[in-house]
Fold this protein.
Amino acid sequence: MVFINCLAKYFTNKFELSHIESIKLKYSLEVLLGDISKFLILSLSFAIFGVFLDYICSFVVLLPMRTFSGGMHFKSYKACLAFTGTFFGIEIFLKNNFTISQNLAIVLFIFSISVIYGLAPVIGENRPKYSREKCLQFKIISIFIALFHFLAYF
């Protein structure tokens, strides 16, 4: 936190940012550094368990969906890290130990589209709200990403 405050203060002074711009910068730095540290911690953890490449593949595949559909948000860094690690761990375990039939893939696709249609995008409470048009755009992009993954399965 001290590092983020120092970095935000440096950029605020260097670029003569307004108070609001400074707050936005600090929030962005917190999110960016938090995500980088979570990625590094999880990378190391999954490497120790011998499934680093599975983690990277899952991360790369899920990143576009997460970007446009949003996701779960937790009040603490530790809760977020624990949930993310558990989520990827379960996903990797299922991928490595079970195969899904075409019928189940279709059911999961329909479920995914329903969830995206009903809930996406999920916006964190600290982020600015998007316009209706922007939300619709994110929803459509998320549906196309899900469709791409579904078609890639076959």
Observations:
- The chain has a mean pLDDT of 93.
- The chain is about 80% helix and 0% strand.
- Residues 1-48 form one domain.
